[in-house]
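Annex B. Sample input.
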Amino acid sequence: MSKEIMLENKQVLIGESEYRLSIIKTLEESYEAHLSDVNSQFSVERTFNSLLEIENKLMSWVKGMNSYNNPEVRVFEELRRWDGVIEV
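Annex B, continued. Sample output.
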């Protein structure tokens, strides 16, 4: 049995960012997720060990990679969560 494409080039939009997501089932019964930004050379992949892991973690992983790809988004998201307290 060879690798099996489970999802190919799914369009993912996060704000104004556009990505393509593909998921391949491997020989070891794990899943390789490949995420790439349509408008840049940003590309990242992650292995998920089960369907349950994909179900529980895929969307948060994609959101996290969007923040990593867009530093401005990451910085201002952290500021939104900040409670405004500076300890001295």
